[in-house]
Design goal:
D-Maltodextrin-Binding Protein, domain 2, 2 domains, two-stranded antiparallel ribbon, about 15% strand, rod-shaped, membrane
Length: about 230
Amino acid sequence: MAQYDKFAISGVAMEQFAIATPKGRLLTVWEIMLKPFQLSAWGMILGILVTYQIIHQLKPALFSNNLLALALFGFDKRQLVLSKSIEKITACALIVLFFQLKCAYEAKLVSYITETPRVPDAKSVEELRERNITVHYRNFDITLVHKLNGMVKFYGKNQFEFDGITIVENRAALITEKLFADNMDGYGMQYTLLSENVYEAIPFYVFGAKSLLVNRFHNFQQRVFEAGPELD
């Protein structure tokens, strides 16, 4: 609003504009299979396999059993009690290690089957920028907001929808839309709201010249402001 007039009453709370962006996509089957362990754990397992194969190639007679098959599946060519001490120690260490790894892997995999994991959601404007995501605006020109420089585009529809694009809009409206999308099948895609506000403005309520509600609404706004309500 360019200037004040006697028929415009300002609100007691700032109008907050936030960004809503689609939740990360569901992981593929192969991504789910690899997700239970971090890269360092997979590297350790691969290192054990490679090291064992190198030792087996250099000294094939060192172990009478295939220790990896013994640790993973319990297969043995010769009873472990009859093997050499070094084979017993190595086999016991591998059995304990792979048993713990299998238990941890299976527990995480079952939890992923119960609820399919997603790619991590964007949590900030910087993460949106790193992912080269365009932010769409509708009711007001957001191009002058510095933090969104170079990543905004006008949204031509009359009303916003959770249809796969990232949008900036009134936070209260986004929360309401998200509530419907989360609880009504087919209403819209799953979205996440960024915690930071990209823009704030004072809302104004305009009444007619002869409206009887102007003074009453103005007094109400003043009393709410003086009472200091929780506005977050």
